[in-house]
Amino acid sequence: METPQQTSKEYFRITSVIHMGLVLGVVIFGLVVSFFIADFQHPDMDSESARIFVYLVPGICILALFAAKLIFGNRLKSLMELDDLKTKMTGYRECLIIRYLFLEGPALFAMVAVFLTGNIIYLIYAGVVLVLFILKRPTLKATVKDLALNQEEVAKLEDPDAIVA
Question: Helix, strand, or coil here: 162?
Fold first, then answer.
């Protein structure tokens, strides 16, 4: 199946929509857990699962951040070796989605821990990961930096009507 070609403007719009959808999913789930489900008046601090979450939530957050950086960086290296801009941009979107999933996962896990224990501390972990997630939004500047594009490729990306993917 052949994918339709996308202009630079369409590429960044679609990638931004994917990013925003994932961010909003985390935010909405966090609001639901915070306002409707979690009982912050009586947090569970003594059960076995509550004691495990004390180590598991920060561990998963840190591990996922390192994994996102490592996997994203390794995939970028292979993309930088390519000559075709369309192939680079298609691969770059895949890299971004993988990075976003590694950022979304620990935020959602931290909120599940809030739901199960009522411990508001886990919202801090989710919030930190969410801020990093928001800061990693797809932009032209970040794309140029990440892929180390040459001037010709940058000129194509800056032209909103140029086919880039």
Answer: coil
Q: How far is CA 73 from the centre of its chain?
A: 14
pLDDT at residue 4 tops 90: no
The DSSP element (H or E) to which 134 belongs, if any, is: helix 121-135
CB 108 within 8 A of CB 31: no
Q: How far apart are CA 61 and CA 65, in angstroms?
A: 6
How confident is the model over 10-50, as pLDDT tens digits? 999 999 999 999 999 999 998 888 887 766 676 767 778 78
Separation of first and last alpha carbons in the chain: 15
Give how far the C-alpha of residue 27 lies from the chain's centroid of Cα atoms, to the nearest Å.
13
Separation of alpha carbons 110 and 49, rounded Å: 13
Amino acid (1-letter code) at residue 139: T
Q: Which amino acid is at 155?
A: A
CA–CA separation, 143 and 156 (whole Å): 12
Judge contact between 19 and 96, C-beta under 8 A.
yes
